[in-house]
Amino acid sequence: MSKLSSQCQDELCLKEGDPKSTRLYLCSHHCYKMLCLKHLTEHDQCIKNRTQYQNKLKDLWDIYTTKFDEDKVEKQIQNLKIELKNYQNLKKCIENLLSINHFHGSMENNQKFEIAIAKLQKVIEQKNQSESTYDNIDLKSKSITNDEEEKQPVIDYGKIS
Fold first, then answer.
1. Which of 42, 5, 11 is nearest to 27 (CA)?
2. Is there a contact between 3 and 27 (Cβ–Cβ < 8 Å)?
3. Most buried one in 20, 39, 44, 48, CB count within 10 A?
4. What are the domain boundaries of the chain?
5. Please, which residues have CB within 8 angstroms of residue 160's CB and are 6 or more apart in sequence?
């Protein structure tokens, strides 16, 4: 239903400051202002576009959420944190052993060196195995089942000294 009034209540018409008597219509979609036909049509198109964008965004989000496994990512993050902490512990132990310059307790130190060498060789072998496992994954699919993920070794560097 139209109404003859002084001025369209759209911001652009109000800024013009040139009040014209024109037929106005109620924008019942969203703002409930009295608008000229031009601005009412623009508001109507805006609502249609917004609805289309919302539907498209929802559809895309649904697709993405089916492809993104939040639990898997959280587990990978936890495994990486453990691996980083173990690496940092191993690094500290190796640096301490490499900084030994005296020969006091050299038999004990030699045992520590042997243990560190064996541990480091084991860690390097585990790291190489896990890297070769990742290299064999088809990069196009980029999906590892949960069973395969659980088989991925978490490298435990342990204590040396």
1. 42
2. no
3. 39
4. 2-66, 69-151
5. 90, 93, 94, 97, 112, 115, 116, 119
Residue 123 vs residues 12, 108, 139: alpha-carbon distances, Å: 69, 22, 25
- Give me the DSSP letters along 143-154: ---HHHHHHSPP
Report which DSSP code applies to 155: P
Three-state DSSP class for 57?
A: helix
- Please tell me the pTM assigned to this model: 0.50
Residue pointed to by tokens 């060498």: 117
Q: What pLDDT was estimated at residue 17?
A: 67
Residue with tokens 């060789």: 121
Instruction: Give the chain's length.
Output: 161
Which residue ranges of the chain lie beneath pLDDT 70?
1-5, 17-21, 103, 105, 133-161
What's the pLDDT at 117?
94
